[in-house]
Amino acid sequence: QVQLVESGGGLVQAGGSLRLSCAASGSIFSIRSMAWYRQAPGKLRELVAATRSGGNTDYIDSVKGRFTISRDDAKNTVYLQMNSLKPEDTAVYYCNAVILNPKLGENDYWGQGTQVTVSS
Predict the structure, then answer these.
(1) How many Å separate Cα 23 from the centre of its chain?
(2) What pLDDT, on a 0 to 100 scale, did the predictor assign at position 29?
(3) Per-residue pLDDT reduced to its tens digit, 67-101
(4) Cα distance between residue 112 and residue 89, in whole Å
(5) Which residues contact 117 (CB under 8 A, 6 or more apart)?
(6) Cα dist. 66→36, 83, 104, 110, 116 in Å?
């Protein structure tokens, strides 16, 4: 089995910064991609940022220039540095990983979610 454990959420004022971390552990052969999603109350879950093998990254337009996703392969950990936070960034942030296991094949895993609240 694979577990994703997130940390780093909290309450911050507009314009502030937070850094989210997500560590994958368990039966991992290789990690295809890692990403951060978020879900605000009454809204659908959306992809915020993703990083794939080879270092390619993608961001939704609303966070470009403010958020940075990075990955430490030695630690099986993905980070999301969030700067210049806005109240509209308030949401539960979820870590996602697509992981290859020799016995289980390629599967999608999710963290438990961490709350980010930005006050105006």
Answers:
(1) 10
(2) 87
(3) 999 999 999 999 999 999 999 999 999 999 999 98
(4) 18
(5) 10, 11, 12, 90
(6) 14, 5, 36, 24, 15
pLDDT higher than 90, residue 33: yes
Q: Which residues pair with 49 in a beta bridge?
A: 36, 59
- For residues 28 and 63, give the distance between their C-alpha atoms in angstroms, rounded to a whole number: 30
The label of the residue with tokens 């993703």 reads 50
Classified as helix, coil or strand, 62 is helix
3-state helix, strand, coil in the chain (%, to 5): 10, 60, 30
Mean pLDDT of 25-49: 94
Look-up of token digits 């979610």: 113
